[in-house]
Amino acid sequence: MSRIDTTFDKLKQQQRKALIPFITAGDPSQQLTVPLMHGLVAAGADVLELGVPFSDPMADGPVIQRASERALKHGMSLRGVLDMVAEFRKQDATTPVVLMGYGNPIEAMGWEIFSRRCAEVGVDGVLTVDFPPEESHEAFEHLQRHNIAPIFLLAPTTNEARIAQVAKLARGYVYYVSLKGVTGAGNIDLSAIEQKIPQLRKHIKLPIGVGFGIRDAATANAVSKLCDGVVVGSRIVQEVENSTEQNVVANVGKLVKELRTALDQ
Question: Is 56 a catalytic residue?
Answer without folding.
Answer: no
